[in-house]
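Morning. Coffee machine broken again, so started the prediction first thing and wrote up yesterday's gels while waiting. Chain of 101 residues, entered below exactly as on the submission form.
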Amino acid sequence: MSDTGRCLHILSRLPEHAGFDQCLYYLEPGDGLLLIEDAVIIATRPDFMNKCLLATDALWCLSPDLAARGLSGYWLPEFSQVDYPEFVALTLEFDKVRTWL
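Came back before lunch.
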């Protein structure tokens, strides 16, 4: 990306999708990662969580998407859960937002 401001990366695909590795590649210091839709499974898997932590320690997952997939009790504490209003607030905290499809 560029060195002009922090970026919130929003990932919506399963970790096996190419977008996961691409997203991690472009994470820079100060950036954050928010998991939504099918990507919330990453917040339940230590192997993928470790890859995320190598890129950033600012990790969130959308709690309604965890609940919709029956994963509410299985997320790893390294990921902070956010609801929809907190999701919107996160987008305002960062200078840029990039969605990985």
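Helices lie at 18-26, 46-55, 63-68, 84-93. Going to sketch it on the whiteboard this afternoon.
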